Sequence to fold (501 residues):
Amino acid sequence: MAFPAEKRREFRRGTLRACWLVVLCSANLYAALCAPLRETVSELTEHQARAYAEVLNMRPAAACALLGAGTDAGTLLVQDCLGITELLVSQDAARFESTVAAQDARLAALDGQAGPLAEYAAAEIRLHQAAAQVVFNHEVQGAWSLRRSYGAMQRVVERYPNYLPARKTLGMLQFFIGSLPEGYRWFLRLLGLPGSIDAGLTNLRRAASQPNDFQLEARLVLALLEETYYKKPAAALALVERLHREQPENQLLVFLLISQRKKQHRTDEALAAYRARPTGPDYLPLPYLHHLAADLLLYQGQYPASRRANELFLRQYRGRHYLKDAYFKLYLACWLGGDAPAAGRYRARIGPAGRTVLEEDTYAQRFFDDPQPLDATLTRARLQIDGGYYRPALATLTTFRASAATPLRDQLEHLYRRARALHLLGQPDSARVLYAQTIARAGSAPYYYAPQSALQLGYLYQLEGQRNTAKAYFQKALSYSRHEYKNSTDTKAKLALAELK
Fold:
């Protein structure tokens, strides 16, 4: 069985959105049916819980020392959490086969073990396996593992309705499947998996609101979903900041803190967290942090420092995602910094590097393939807006001069960037006019400025209570067939429409 190339890319895109959250199997059916319904082992031991905390801290040696050996469900589960964390963080293909073999051995050891923890562990390990298989190009096996994990997790919830960890994972799966854009319907039909945004959020909220071994993970997943798709950035950032104050040694929380501050355009604070991050040989290397820092430095116009950070990322990283994006950002740092020869060298490396699964890499590849050069003024303004420097961005945009010869792409970007800066400065009326002008001028041009303008107009009218107008703009955002950020734009528009029903 083989997927068409584009369908493989769609499947990986959808699954990769969940892989970092998976970090943070069906058992034998006969044994599951015959096992007593009385809940046996349902919680991690104290040592297992402490070891799991060290997994989240990304301190593998400390986790192993606490965990020890054993074939009980809690030990096997935490061992697998550590294994999948090391694989997905390193993105090292050389570790894939041994990781999957270890997962198979753990599943065999769990076969016949009964009780909520054992059955949950088997389903969770199978989900980890699905993530590993999809990330490392084994899509068919990954699809089958995902289906088995989903079915097993459903059975855990049915047999043990008060066992909250299973609701955490099932809720996450239900949400992601339910929120997939229309282009993924082939995937849902293939797997026969029911998705439900409402059921997913209900399960996640139950797991996040009541004490259980994996409550922290449930709270983080829920907060990140609400921040990304339901425009609740303040709540997500407040949670991450509070947890970080309580656990400053936790590298996962540091990563989330930097990432959330970056997404919310708080560059200075994000860089402060990056510079104060815990380091040392006890911690699992996290090269992606340097890639985040490179972006933040680029926003500030610190081009040599941004270049050094991305070069460090490339030296340490073993994966194939974010490579095109890294070379694109290196190109920008050199081009804007006045080093044209280096910029040319980095630009040439975008094409052959990595893959175009993630939207960042797709954007970089489109830049590489497009013979039309970027405009330096608009590029600086974009970086300033991304960094939260809205007034400097508006000042930069005032120096842009359009003429009859100005390409349509640059005309659209100029309108859109002004709209974004004004919107983020709290001037929605001015932003609304410019968003509408962007849509009107774009027509069917294959750029993301018009669909993003439609999405932002939908949000603005939704806030004002103008439901019909908001609905029309969300549907408009979905109507664009080709642009760099179609998957994320469509998902956000779909979820916003569901809220308006």
